[in-house]
Specification:
The chain has two domains: about 55 residues, Arc Repressor Mutant, subunit A (Orthogonal Bundle); about 160 residues. It has eleven helices and no strands.
């Protein structure tokens, strides 16, 4: 059963975060000013993503990053004092790519879609991005290296959850405002966790894991959708019952 947006609902899903996750910054890193230098740094970070993903953080050397980036080792040290600084830059680049992807997903008419289609679209978009971007595997397999990277990832998920709550308000208007944030957080955290698991298990199992993620979240959200139907029914006792309570009763 799909919940359609009520005709009186005109609020749009926010495409801009209210709060931006604080980026990981290394005070010892030189920030490039010229366009040529910016391109060189981008090339270094992209090369590091592949090296970290293929070899792991510990086995990767600055020399290997330089070779893949087709630049000198001196050029790398001109912008990054050490390997950890390169990793910090990669983590921030990855976060910005995720934010841009999220913005792109929200440019579609999610509010006009059945909620299941909107959910599938979001999961498919993030799964495709993570499958094609080596930075995902590099960052998530080594994010424990610094508390700053972990904190940035958690802040980014909170930002995404705030914006998913805006979609829930439209797609599932019967979810109480006080509970909306928790439901949004569950959606974001489940998808994040399953993306990490799919990366660990490889492409073949990864596709199956993401397919099961859709089933898992549909089952989780269905009681809230059913609550909308109960609210429109003739039985006021069903309308008053909370979605989690109805789910436990089943």
């Amino acid at each position: 059963m799909f919940v359609k947006r009520p005709a009186r609902m005109t609020k749009k899903i926010s495409r801009k975060p209210q709060k931006t996750a604080a980026p990981v910054q290394d005070p010892a890193r030189r920030i490039p000013a010229q366009e040529r230098s910016k391109l060189r740094v981008t090339r270094i970070v992209d090369a590091a993503a592949i090296e970290f993903a293929e070899r792991g953080y510990d086995a990767t050397t600055m020399e290997a990053i330089a070779a893949r980036a087709e630049t000198s080792i001196g050029s790398i040290y001109q912008f990054f004092p050490n390997k950890l600084a390169v990793f910090h830059a990669l983590a921030h680049t990855y976060a910005e790519k995720l934010r841009a992807l999220f913005d792109n997903v929200l440019t579609t008419s999610l509010a006009d879609m059945p909620w299941t289609a909107a959910l599938d679209l979001g999961i498919d978009a993030f799964a495709a991005f993570h499958a094609s971007d080596p930075g995902f595997r590099a960052v998530w397999l080594s994010m424990h290296l610094t508390a700053e990277v972990v904190a940035e990832g958690e802040a980014l998920n909170r930002e995404f959850a705030d914006r998913v709550a805006g979609w829930i308000e439209i797609a599932m208007p019967h979810v109480h405002k006080k509970h909306r944030g928790m439901v949004a957080m569950m959606i974001v955290e489940v998808i994040s966790a399953m993306l990490i698991l799919s990366a660990r298990r490889g492409p073949k199992d990864g596709e199956l894991i993401m397919a099961e993620t859709k089933v898992l979240l549909r089952r989780y959200l269905e009681p809230y959708v059913d609550a909308a139907s109960a609210a429109d029914s003739e039985d006021p006792s069903l309308a008053a019952e909370t979605a989690p309570a109805r789910a436990r009763r089943r």
